[in-house]
Prior knowledge:
Distance between the termini of chain B: 92 Å
Shape of chain B: elongated
Oligomer: heterodimer
Number of strands of chain A: 11
Number of helices of chain A: 5
Number of strands of chain B: 7
Shape of chain A: globular
Structural class of chain A: alpha/beta
Radius of gyration of chain B: 28 Å
Distance between the termini of chain A: 34 Å
Structural class of chain B: alpha+beta
Strand content of chain A: 25-35%
Amino acid sequence: MNVAHIEPQSHIYGPGKRFVIWLQGCSLACPGCWNEEMWSFKPKTLIHRDELLARILTTDDIQGITLLGGEPPQQADNVRWLLNRVKQESELSTFLYTGYEPQELHTIGLWDELNTLCDMIAVGRYKKDERNTNRQWVGSENQALIYPEGSGENMPQSDQNEVEIIIHSDGALTVLGFPDTEMVDLIKEI
Amino acid sequence: MSAVIKTTTPFTIQEVLLEALEGVGAEPETVTTESLKVQSHRGGLKVGDILTNRTDYNGPQHFRYEGGRWILRHDSGEFNGTVTAVGAASRKYRSVAQFLASVSEEYGAAYQRHLDKLAEEERTRVEEARKARVEATRKQVITNAKAQGYSVKEVRNGNKIQVVLTRTV
């Protein structure tokens, strides 16, 4: 799988602590996208899906996995395989972000599968003129959060802004989530 | 035929030399103003010289710091040499060359320990600086976040600190 970033125990991409995978590559190219560096399909970090599954299953104390990007459905075979295996081999919940609309997912033949394999799906393009950093798990007003029938998750999204800052052992920072401009400026000062 | 010439190890570090002299049983003693009153040597002693328990015609053989290294001052004849330390009385007197060879060997080992100690001190210093840098960053992140109205939850995860910021609308 072509992976842009992994955060094994993040707190802000769905309910509870989650193994979060940003997949590399997205052709939707939403203007104002938070992660333009994840558009390219050139290999960033290639990880065999078996290895990724093993890492997920051996990570302690997580409630689920979250896939985002990049555009996960554009690595559909591997995403389908990974979600299937996680469901078969664990009690972890699955949350997938996609920029596609439900109708588009239906057209490309993924809608039914994702509804079976996911406990939560965030759908819709990021629209910068509808940007809203206070929707907890999504970044613009038009995006919808779907809990498919039979979902193991029912925690509703709150009206709040969440940011996760990881301070590494060398003092470097990783900032995740939906920081507003002021927060970004303050972080740059550090 | 070719020559093989090896000079003795330059004894440059006092702390290491003292350790080496202890190691070979030479019972080193640093000359002080006080000890000058009771110690004597035909060539004279100075505060800071390092006495050994070896004596010769001129008095106690000792090291003096000259030209950036510690030099053993001894009678060149060695004819009258004895070992005076009571505990070492039964030992045969060893020549200066043999003595310096054994001090050199011990000095090499002590020097390695000295380097290891310096490396450990440096490692500790760098690690303390790293911890201080991380702590300063952590405080600044939290201060800035609170100033922006966020509530802060902090989680230690291995060698990382995860700071989760939440601001309810």
